[in-house]
User: What shape does this take?
Amino acid sequence: MRIGHFKETYVSDQAVFATATSRFWLGILFALLLLFPFVAGDYLLFMANLAGITIIGAVGLNILTGFAGQISLGHAAFIGVGGYTAAILATRFNLPFLICLPLSGLMAAFFGIIVGGPSLRLKGLYLCIATLAAQLILEFVFVHWESVTGGIRGINLSPPEICGYVLDNDFKYYFLTLAMVILCVTAARNLFRTRVGRAFIAIRDRDISAELMGINLLRYKLYAFAVSSFMAGLSGCLWVNFLKTVTPEHFPLMESVRYLAMIIVGGMGSILGSIFGAIFMTIVPEAISTVLGLLVNTFPTAMSFLFPLQQVIFGLLIVIFLVFEPHGLAEIWRRIKNYFHLWPFEH
Amino acid sequence: MDIFLQLIASGLLVGGIYALIALGFVLIYKATNIINFATGEFMMIGAYIFYSLTVYLKLSPYAGFPLVIVCAALLGTLVERLILRHMLGQPNISIIMVTIGLSSILLGIAEIIWGSDFRSLPPLFPRKPIIIGEVVLRSNLFYGFLMAIAVVVIFMLLFKYAKIGVAMRATANDQMAAFSMGINVKTMFTISWAFGTIAASLGGIIIGNIGGVQPTLGHIGLKIFPIVILGGLDSVGGAVLGGFIVGIVENLAGGYLDPYFHGGVKDLAPFVVLILILLIKPYGLFGTKEIERL
Assistant: This one.
């Protein structure tokens, strides 16, 4: 809450960017994001693309788990469905990228609805385990349906082309990723100003109460699964076109867990939190390997600890955030902002 | 026909071992309502501790087992006191994620301490295969099964007759009532974690004795979910039955379907059965139906 800023109408209460100050900073951020690729090196661009693609997936999962309260351990599989759809449409049917993109989202949404179908009868832990089963079954299909998915060898793609413009390097791809991230984040943020979004939140808070208030549980749970998997599908399509290859090992159960970790570290039920979480979880493994890389000179065996150490730190991050900061990075960010709103008068 | 009998028989034996691991899971769930995704990693740690005691310290297996039980109880207690106690009353997702984080930590630590190489435990049982009629059973599977069943029976007797077991059942049944009868509910949580960890690590030693020990041993822990869902999350008897069903289903699926799919069906089949059962009975075969009130 900003001092001297009064919300006098519902419109101003619901506004995404309530004050001129926040619009100003958003403009600055946008300008910086546009300038970023011109100053950043190849490595940073690669990481930025990865982070952007991950953000779309994380926003999708947060809609389902953070806002609608349905725990999913199958998010990576939905990303995989999107990725495989994109790869198959592009290589077998030679469809242009701009058609593949929404189609892979729709295909993932379709699978999401199938998996979400039992969600009316299955609740909480039982639903969570059903999505775990879906993840393992889809993984099996990716590996074993060789005539379509190419088995463990996967499928290779050529770089995507938009209106005759070939996105063949990270620099060009960055703008596509940026545009998609802005589109998805804006869509997600606005979703929660609508009837559907409020229904999701009501279901999360107490599904029986929501039903009593006239919310059709099955329909809105399926909406949540569909929207969430749609974004997962978009993320998968972008990911596959970025790496120009798709193999089953990109979508293991561990990846689903990583996405859950992202929204927990970032902040559940917060779009901003998904963004923070996705960026954080993309940077941390790289930071660990950089630090270990520096230690190699003094301890030659340091690199052999890379994988187990990443595992330990990944686990510690989840546990520490859940125990000490359950609302995640978004809450820390809010506290920092509040501090500066009131500065220098802290109380 | 003898292939069929053979598959059923080894399925039963594996199922008995699964039942023990599932027991480790259900013990914790029943008392504390916590889905423990780290059960597999407790198994792995138990097997590694046993390995260190018998190979590095050259203790006999008879000394190894009690020591592993003590270590497992300590680990379970520590985990409960340091991490899970803080999560009381948090939403499901947080608790699930904490145990997933825990499994990741344990996996990493095991790999740092013992490396990712494959280790084999010292032989615990006579090597001669057991032959019943036309069915040939691997000896370590057979004796492992006997051991697992013995442990399961001991745990069940403990629940039925020992004071501590009755207190645990009371806590699982109704925390408020148990508390007002003078049972220390928090201690019961700790004890459930200790017991659950003990059951899981004994299961880990048996599995490790059959297939060797590796950090990825814990992946077997995923199979717990079809087992306990089949039986219902909070039913000990259901977990045992679920263990047998899953053991047999995966052996039959592995034996008959794997050649057509180039492998992998064995691990997948229980999950397909799981989905089918959940569609028909949303709380598993023997699970308590949750009655929700506003």
About this structure: Chain B touches chain A through 47 residues (CB under 8 Å). The mean pLDDT of chain B is 87.
